[in-house]
Amino acid sequence: MATKVQRFQTPIGTHDLLPQAAGRWNAFQELFAREANLANFGMIETPIFEHLGVFRRLGEGTDVVTKEMYDFLDKGDRQMALRPEKTASVCRAFAQHRPTTPWKVWYSGPFFRYEAPQAGRLRQFHQVGAEILGSDDPDVDVEVIALAARVLAGAGLRQNLLVINSMGDAESRQRFAEALQQFLRDNLDNVDPADRQKVDAHPLRVLDSKRDATREVTARAPQVADFLTDAATEHFGRVKAGLDSLAISYTVEPRLVRGLDYYSHTLFEFQSQALVTAQDALGGGGRYNGLVKALGGPETPGVGFAMGIERILLACDAEQTFVAPDASPVAFVVDVTGGENARDLTFELRDLGVSADRAFDQRSMKAQMKAADRSGAHWAVIVGQDEAAAGSVTLRNMRGSADPQRSIPRTDIGTELLRLLAAHADD
Ligand code: AMP
């Protein structure tokens, strides 16, 4: 009996990036790299998987660590995990290599969280981001926020909201956490049951809750701004002054806290008003102290952010901006004399930097012209029996009616296409 062939699909919460969409994806990564390089950030790559302990340092009570980690035992019985975010890996790399500071790095790559997939929320998603380690200067906070803002503006996004807040220093955070915990205990009956267990262990995370009942309680809760020390207030003031000076508009949101344990001082998030609330976070980050130390390095302050590439491209769709660049070849060689001319001509053109493609499998003239059309090529370079005998090619404009078709010597085709390309550079 014939066995049934199993048909596989991408795992839930993942997707294939196909060539049609990849042009735009690459263009966005290039935009990010360009902006990061302009500000003298260097690229960093770290492994896709690390020892689980690296990510555990993010905070034992967070969903990212407890529920969403792709952890596994490798064949040597080591506990490993696919990275859920990058900051921990960057801090691990800093502790391992001890670079000079300030250490400014940027990255782009895939990340993994076992979440319930929905629109804009995936199990393998992709982030670009940047971190600066080794400086307490509030201007460094401004530097990373401004980088994110410039990238979003560079992608043509206009409907962004930047929300910021300060968690203050350790002392501010401690005093605030105690006051908040007391308030939540006093109002425990009104907190959504699913959030109640956080009140004792991680009161700050209750502020993260999206549940209506809890949000009604936290709307009346003490605010971190009332607990900032003078030094923390000064730090936050300098960040706000920097954003004002660079004309980056923002809103202070006193309830903005971020899920991970290690944040202090500045927190920020970019939201898209063009997307529905559940997927409106384009990116965010903040200042963190203590993470490098927790990973075996010296006490080192840091600040950084990550942005979701899928989210940003969704926002670009919603705002109808950042369209894919034209990836079509300049020339498509149609050869009905056996394929040798197509083979040699495409390589001659590529040597000159002219992108060129051809048909294979000895197809008919009609089929090859169809393929030329489908490729989106600007010009078809046609070699039939007559052309081959005369040492010429027929050059046909596939876009528009100007200069539709003419014969030129085969030896001139490269320079002629270069001339045409220069003439059409502004199209
Ligand atoms: P986070 O590391 O949680 O602060 O996330 C930073 C950004 O990455 C978010 O603002 C989103 O744009 C994006 N992001 C986070 N988790 C996911 C996910 N599961 N699927 C798609 N994008 C995500």
- Strand percentage, roughly? 15-25%
Bound molecules: adenosine monophosphate
Taken from the alpha-carbon principal axes, the silhouette is elongated
- The CATH architecture of the largest domain can be named as 2-Layer Sandwich
Q: What is the name of the CATH topology of the largest domain?
A: BirA Bifunctional Protein, domain 2
Q: Indicate the percent of residues in helices.
A: 25-40%
Write down the overall mean pLDDT.
Answer: 94
CATH superfamily label of the largest domain = Bira Bifunctional Protein, Domain 2
Q: How many beta-strand runs? A: 16
Radius of gyration: 28 Å
Q: Report on the biggest sheet.
A: 8 strands, mixed
In DSSP terms (H or I, runs of 4 or more residues), the helix count works out at: 16
Low-confidence stretches: none
The number of domains = 2
Backbone structural class: alpha+beta
**Spatial separation of the terminal alpha carbons:** 60 Å
Strand order of the largest sheet: 1-5-6-11-10-9-7-8
* CATH class call of the largest domain: Alpha Beta
